[in-house]
Design a protein that fits this description.
2 domains, TIM Barrel, 9 strands, 3-stranded parallel sheet
């Protein structure tokens, strides 16, 4: 493609509709007492002004808590409250949406469209009414499980590491959840799902499913990544895989590098853990403290692009998108410092020779197609 100047890729980037289907800033907002619409540089990857600077048109905000917390439904609502408050303070910049048409209206009005994705079926507390309540508040997908399985579906972590797990896949109640989500038009997210559960879900769902933040197992054999047959099944189902930026999911050498880093700082890590910080925030602290030291651990942007290209080469350009996991990951690939860095992905795709139409699909068009198909009463794929 030759050498690009800044105007070329910036123009293409900002002309496209950019959708990120997984950002965990609301977890930090609630945990650390932050305001999403304040300047959070140095504390988080994300805030409202930087999202706008990065060209994000549609942000699905992850609603997350660990699978063993008490009252997860209440915590989910607190995270939703935090975004609603920021939206009410900034009506000229961001608007809550609940449908494809509302997203397009927000974009036409030069505002960022915001909706929720609930990360972990434990937050519905085995209650379909609570699932409906989260949908009514703007949740347009449910990640069926996080690492710790709820009572009704098995996670990748449990299926892989927990030999005592009594049942793999979906229970009868789990099947009710799938049917209810299909009827609501709520996207089924298979990120974090175990293999047994994945195949049951994709067989049962009458609508296209998706993975909100997962990468490619053939490139990095991590339990959180999708195998080739799963990628092909999602494409056949009409869904989409939103590639995750986490170094451990896109770079097969990362875990060994991280292990060396943690051994080097084991005393400090133990001290921070004893202070009451969770492991996630301990890692955040260590990485920020030793920011120069960890630069060589960060995979190049080209490794992320490899995962995008692998999916394209396997099933086509219509089945891949971006699910960053910003603020749910402690470390990012090189050149992707925070949410202002999205244009670097567009630049890399241009340099690979992709057309403007294909780049628009990758940046957001593919996800919007799947969202619209889930809304349709007559859009069942099976």
């Amino acid at each position: 493609m030759g050498i690009l100047n800044a105007q070329d890729y910036q123009r293409m980037h900002h002309n496209a509709v950019l959708v990120d289907t997984h950002n965990d800033i609301l977890m930090k907002v609630v945990d650390l007492g932050l305001d999403f619409d304040s300047d959070l540089r140095g504390t988080a990857h994300s805030d409202l002004s930087r999202m706008l600077e990065g060209g994000i048109d549609v942000q699905v905000f992850s609603i997350y808590c660990d699978g063993d917390v008490l009252d997860p439904f209440a915590l989910a609502n607190r995270e939703m409250d935090s975004l609603d408050a920021a939206v009410s303070r900034n009506p000229d910049k961001i608007v809550k949406v609940g449908s494809y048409d509302e997203i397009m209206k927000a974009i036409d009005g030069k505002k960022m469209a915001a909706l929720f994705g609930v990360e972990g079926g434990h937050m519905i507390e085995d209650n379909l009414d609570k699932l409906s309540a989260l949908y009514q508040r703007g949740a347009r997908y449910l990640t069926l499980t996080h690492n710790i399985s709820p009572s009704w579906v098995s996670s990748a972590m449990d299926e892989t590491l927990n030999p005592e797990m009594p049942e793999k896949g979906l229970t009868d109640f789990g099947k009710q959840v799938i049917r209810k989500m299909n009827s609501l038009g709520m996207l089924i997210d298979v990120s974090h799902l175990g293999d047994h559960a994945f195949w049951e879900v994709i067989t049962l769902s009458s609508k296209p499913i998706f993975a909100s933040h997962s990468s490619v197992y053939s490139l990095v054999p991590h339990r959180r990544n999708l195998k080739d047959d799963q990628i092909k099944a999602i494409a056949k189902n009409g869904g989409v895989i939103q590639v995750n930026f986490h170094p451990g999911f896109i770079d097969s050498s990362f875990e060994a590098k991280e292990r060396v880093f943690l051994e080097r700082h084991a005393v400090e890590m133990d001290s921070l853990l004893r202070s009451g910080l969770s492991e996630f925030y301990v890692m955040d602290t260590l990485y920020r403290t030793y920011s120069e030291e960890i630069q060589d651990m960060r995979p190049p942007l080209s490794m992320l692009i490899q995962h995008i290209e692998y999916i394209i080469n396997l099933v086509g350009v219509d089945y891949v998108g971006l699910g960053s996991d910003f603020d749910g990951i402690n470390l990012t690939p090189q050149l992707l410092e925070d949410v202002t860095s999205y244009p670097m992905i567009t630049k890399a795709l241009i340099e690979k020779g992709y057309s403007e139409a294909d780049i628009s699909k990758i940046l957001g068009g593919n996800f919007l197609r799947v969202l619209k198909a889930n809304e349709s009463k007559n859009g069942d794929q099976k």
